[in-house]
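2024-03-11 09:14:02 INFO queue: dequeued item Ribosomal protein S18 acetylase RimI-like enzyme, len=149
2024-03-11 09:14:02 INFO validating residues
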Amino acid sequence: MKAAADIEVASTLSSTDLDAVERLLPLLSSTAGYDRNRMLAMLDHPGLNLFVARVGGEIVGMATLATFPLPTGWRGHVDDVVVDDTQRGKGIARSLLVAIIQLARERGLRTLDLTSRPSRASAIHLYESVGFERRDSVLMRFRPTEFNN
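2024-03-11 09:14:37 INFO prediction written
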């Protein structure tokens, strides 16, 4: 059986790819600002991998893995997991997560974390189904500067 999408770590993004990412961002957050230069800078950042899911060559989903050293070990954080509405339910988000988990294992990361709003029950179920566990934790955020991006 053919996979629903081809998963890859993006090393370049064409103009068409960037347009696809721009269409995906509002599905993540109504307040997320899009910046092409920031997207391209992500590709060159040594601690960041942008995973993309392609169907017929077109990006229909994405997720990011941030990897960083801490005194307690190498850690990873998954962010911005999103799949186009027309492609949901086909296992694409699962494939993105499995690819991220595989890279985290290859890198010997001590932990791989992600956060999700409690209202996203289906996303939480997916995360748990690939091995993420709920933690008794409080997510806190500080905004050093107010900006649109």
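2024-03-11 09:14:37 INFO annotate: The longest strand covers residues 58-70.
2024-03-11 09:14:38 INFO item closed
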